[in-house]
Amino acid sequence: MVQAVPYKYIEFSNDTKLETVLNTADDATTGYMVEIDISFDSSIHEKLKHMPPCPEPILPKEEWFSECQTQLVRQLRVILNARS
Hints:
Layout: H1 18-22, H2 45-48, H3 67-83
């Protein structure tokens, strides 16, 4: 589902109950954005390592990569440049 992001008539409320948000129809004229603080028990950290439940929309920096990953990125660039 793709919708435009609202840009006016925005109201902030800390009094809205979670049940109200969850019971709002998909085609309702009023929508909600919810901010949550989330934490996970350290015992399931390894299970979530490869499939995080709340991924961030960030572009990874090359300095975060291991040596093997860095080498693969360089090889991919060479292949992409050769095909261009």
